[in-house]
Design brief:
single chain, disordered N terminus, D-Maltodextrin-Binding Protein, domain 2, about 350 residues, alpha/beta, 13 helices, 2 domains
Amino acid sequence: MRISHLLAVAATLSAIALTAIWWGVDQRGRDDLVVYCAHDLIYAESVINDFRDKTGISVAVLGDTEAAKSLGLVERLMRERGNPHCDVFWNNEPLATLTLAREGLLQPYQGPEAAERPAEFRGADGAWAGFGVRFRVWIVNTDAMPATEAAIDERLAADDLSKLAVAEPLYGTTLTHYSLLWNLWGPERLQEWHRSLKSRGCHFVKGNGAVKDLVASGVCDFGLTDTDDALVALDAGAPVAMLPVRVDGRTIAIANTASIVRGTKRLSDAERLVDHLLSAETEIRLANSGSGQAPVHFGVDASRLPENVAMMQEWTTQGASLAGLDQARDACLAWLQKEFAP
């Protein structure tokens, strides 16, 4: 399939249904515990259903579309300041959560499960805690090139990057990736690197899933994506392999986060749900789901994890610090919006 056709398909899919959608365990009612969820609902549903079955608490979930990522829910929470419609925010990346905490929109809660993880995966004031980690990875088509860091470095140094795919870094984990580079390298070096990719023919596409599809199909030889997308290709039998992206020797570990929204009238139930999200059982469930996310809970039995996910647990101990990156993200995004303006 020609690359122009695949890019057009990716753009079309990302443009469909930009409005967030409701999914409820029961019909949404006045007594429901309301969760805004940026994690894929296909995986979140079983976690929420398990909570309902154990507690009898009815839950309504508002999820974002692929195109909007978590930004639509964050903007909604900002608009609802002082009159929240949401009780618990399940985000799929930490930077926007850090922004909400900085804005005073999250209710600190230091429950028993929050302590069962390394300090880098929880806010010092209890405003958030992380679980279910994915990583930025290189996805490589092994029919086209060796899956080694040396081979990737050699390709990146070449004049022609028309076989490289990267998601547009305007949202999601690619924006987190760029924000980290902005913070560590400084704006000038990042801008020079990005423009060098563009000038040598790198394909910037609408999302990490599109990157995965291009590499798995052989249209591109390698690309930047996340472990959850790479695992989908591996599970489908595609000739791909993944290697962690390293910046100054550190991996880019991106956790889900659980937070209580300040002003909730369901504080006790919200605390119970946060404890459930942060539990070892939920981490094991997410590890064994299609999203294949690595646990950070101290109580997780590694023998209950899939082989590919167990391998990632070592990567969690090597993660670069994301502290303060929400502010770097704001400056980086302002530049990127101009860079990708029509």
